[in-house]
Amino acid sequence: MRVGPREVYIASPHDVRSIFQIKNEYPKSKWYVTFVPFVETIFNTCNIPQHRRLRRLLSSPLSESGLKSFIPQIDSKVSLTIQRMREEQETRGVADIFKWWLFLTTDVIGELSFGESFRMLESGKVSLG
Questions:
Q1: What letter would DSSP give residue 4?
Q2: What's the pLDDT score for residue 127?
Q3: φ, ψ dihedrals at 62, nearest 5°
Q4: For residues 36 and 46, which has the higher predicted lDDT (pLDDT)?
Q5: Span 50-75, pLDDT tens digits
Q6: Cα separation of 4 and 45, whole Å?
Q7: Which of 24, 52, 54 has its CA nearest to residue 39?
Q8: Which long-range contacts (CB under 8 A, 24 or more apart) does 11-18 make?
Q9: HSE-up of 30 (CA within 13 Å, CB side)?
């Protein structure tokens, strides 16, 4: 459905897949480059050959079977997150869910990307290095 001169809302999963696949039919707009202007990533590159190269690098580890191998580590982090929220609730009377989910996602991303957690769940604070 067109909602503006440069804006279309898509609700069909089939159409979304067709539009967001990287082929010459629907190249990404320059908006993606301005979103993160100083680093070219798989998300913001408009260069189709570059996107294909980056995607190939990630295809195996981010495949369903590749991600299944991380289920035990992710389960462990989720359990620790729930435990830490429970502890905070018991000591403070409230739990900062945003903080704990931020720590969870950061630790999981660290584990998946670098093979090592940032251990923010364990420390209960942002670790900068």
A1: E
A2: 66
A3: -100, 10
A4: 46
A5: 888 888 888 887 788 888 988 999 99
A6: 25
A7: 54
A8: none
A9: 0
